[in-house]
Amino acid sequence: GESVGLHLPTLSVQEGDNSIINCAYSNSASDYFIWYKQESGKGPQFIIDIRSNMDKRQGQRVTVLLNKTVKHLSLQIAATQPGDSAVYFCAENPSYGNNRLAFGKGNQVVVIP
Amino acid sequence: NAGVTQTPKFQVLKTGQSMTLQCAQDMNHEYMSWYRQDPGMGLRLIHYSVGAGITDQGEVPNGYNVSRSTTEDFPLRLLSAAPSQTSVYFCASSYNGAYEQYFGPGTRLTVT
């Protein structure tokens, strides 16, 4: 929990506004991407995933966008709530059938009431 | 349905001591994994297993051993603890390889 927020990029968002969290990935062969949310003192929690044959996927209040041309992934959170305050990680699976996820370093989101 | 459970929640070891971090899941998931999380480093894969009797190394396996004798349990062993192994350890499981893994609450380990 408290250790994961150290020196992370931080996004401060007003409650009710939309949040956009960005992630650059490294492997152009990656075929699967996933976003996790980690609240202080807890394990990461699955938010949403997307495969490389898609460029957008929507969930409940969240949208993931994938731009393979520039190897960029983003997570949009609509109407941000105080419960959205957490560290957000993107992860990629390097290739089909590979049983590993490579995680990014994370982004801290702080929601201002 | 308890999901993924980890014990202990906290542990302090002296350099050179050994211990086992326990991980269990009750979702009948074939895939299980261990990660360590250090400040500013994200999560790094230590070992993983795609089923009982099958394990493989991840990104940072040195100093750690695993075994998978049952579908439910995937213990992580530190053979001779070192201060560099001070970290938060997470176990995860999935019904479908590395996709959509469910994480446990973590074990905070300090090696002095």
Draw up the topology in text.
The complex is a heterodimer of chains A (113) and B (112).
Chain A: E1 10-14, E2 19-24, E3 32-38, E4 45-51, E5 56-58, E6 62-67, E7 72-77, E8 86-93, E9 102-103, E10 107-112
Parallel strand pairs in A: 1-10
Antiparallel strand pairs in A: 2-7, 3-4, 3-8, 5-6, 6-7, 8-9, 8-10
Chain B: E1 4-7, E2 10-13, E3 19-25, E4 31-37, E5 43-51, E6 54-57, E7 64-66, E8 76-78, E9 87-94, E10 102-103, E11 107-111
Parallel strand pairs in B: 2-11
Antiparallel strand pairs in B: 1-3, 3-8, 4-5, 4-9, 5-6, 7-8, 9-10, 9-11
Quick structural summary:
Chain A is mainly beta and 113 residues long. Chain A is built from no helices and ten strands.
**Biggest pleated sheet of chain A:** 6 strands, mixed
Give the rounded overall mean pLDDT of chain A. Answer: 89
Low-confidence stretches of chain A: 1-6
Beta content of chain A comes to over 45%
Oligomeric state of this protein: heterodimer
What string gives the helices and strands of chain B in order? EEEEEEEEEEE
Mean pLDDT of chain B: 95
How many angstroms does the end-to-end distance of chain B come to? Answer: 36 Å
**Level of helix content of chain B?**
under 10%
Number of helices of chain A: 0
What is the CA-based Rg of chain A, rounded?
14 Å
Largest sheet report of chain B: 7 strands, mixed
Strand content of chain B: over 45%
Helical content of chain A stands at under 10%
Through-space gap between termini of chain A: 21 Å
Q: Write down the overall geometry of chain A.
A: globular
SS field, number of helical segments of chain B: 0
The dominant shape of chain B is globular
What is the gyration radius of chain B calculated from CA atoms? 13 Å
**How many DSSP-defined strands of chain B?**
11
